[in-house]
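Cross-check.
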Amino acid sequence: MVGPNYVRPAVEQPTGFKSQPSGEAGPPIASDWWRLYADPVLERLVVNAQASNQTLRQAVARVDEARALARVAGSFLYPTVSLDPSYSRTRFSGNRVSTITGQQVARGVDVSNWIIPLDLSYEIDVWGRVRRSLEAARATAEATADDVGVVRLTVETDVAQFYYTIRALDAQIQILKDTVTAYEEQVRLLSVQLRTGLVSGIVVSQAQAQLKATQAQLSNTERARADTEHALAILLGRPAPSFALASSPLHEVSPPVVPAGLPAQLLTRRPDVAEAEKIVVAASAQIGVATAEFYPRFMLTASAGFNSANAGTLFNWQSRVAELLPSISIPIFQGGRLRANLAATKARYRQTVAAYVDQVLVAYGDVEDALTDLHSFGDQVASLRDAVAESRNYLRLAQVQYRQGLVDYLLVIDAGAVRSVSRCPTRTRWFRGAAPASRHSVRKRLTAGAASGGQLALARRLAHGLTERRRGRRAARPLGRLHRHPEQAAGRARRSPPRPTARATRRITAFAQSFSARVG
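Predicted model, tokenized:
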């Protein structure tokens, strides 16, 4: 056969991953990787998506189409045989000239013709043009089958990510609801203090603003939860209005430990890399097809059957007919079309090679990203757990100092808010095994699982600005009743704060006990 035989393009292969400790390589991950999370709800959702996802059904239908086209290409390896029976009756003119005597015939005549031929045509594939075409069609079908693996893995990954995102949003909603309840009680308490002259209207307005901002954040989180649930319904092949996922807040979970394996193993278990390589195989075979066009094409045509003027004698041995017509087609001048077609085919091959190498590099980069994230976010989770413990201690000390009259109750409220935000699950990316997340290079990830999500940014903002906000509130409000003159208020502020009334003290104490029970 003419044309090049396929050779896998050379790609620099690392001996190991930078972020992978020695001895961490393990066996390949099973295809049902989501079972590593040991979550029956997730398993049920993934199974439903595999059965009902419409994108996956389209990919499976494309595989059936590609395999049928491969069988079409393979059929040209065999002769084409057809049976073409026919009957004709012809009236010849009585004024015609005989082709034998050259004289005018005496009269017209009717002639019947019965023919049953068996026709055969066959291209002798001397240069391998047909075989290269079959090779390209088979490689294309295999690439389409690998694409199904990419689509299936994308659907499974998206289901897992949406599921854990919903659970993380459920945790945020629960914490925000608790925070709203605490802020409502704070506004009620400050309103009582305002009426008794213990605080100014600025403090109450600030507490109202804080309450409204948290309520708006709660509404936005609920909207995000609903949108994610709708996207999950589409993945499962379900109408969004009739699909609902029960609330299941995600607070404290441990991701499964999944070894990354070795770089050489990665190329054998990523369907996107396998798909890219099969496309290279098909493009290489097409070079052979284009090259074979420069050589002569040998054709064989034959026909055999029966031919008679009467139907009664059609199948007599004397009525047999046969014909053999070998032919050869030699390209002489095509105006440069064959050379241009070969150059274009080679250019397409170079494109597929570059795409394959790029996909391999993306695969290696995805593994490095996943391993780096695994170790980095592991340290981050440990730090956040320490932050939760410190926020509990902060709340305990604030409550003790408040009971002793050393601080005002806003410090207790702030301590409870810090503890609530610290309890939010951290938005982190788990290491989820060697698998791409979609067909596009941006989403073709090695990892395949879900993120827990959370309010890390909110926690950082609150922790960073807590002292400044508390100082601002203390500087903005007087310590006693409102005064007409700033000088008098400043003088009162330099002295010790007045003790609250007995009624206010009872209300503050009752609220402190209820809030401590809620956040503790």
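The mean pLDDT is 77. Residues 33-69+131-285+342-519 form a domain with the Outer membrane efflux proteins (OEP) fold (CATH 1.20.1600.10). Passed to J.P. for a second look.
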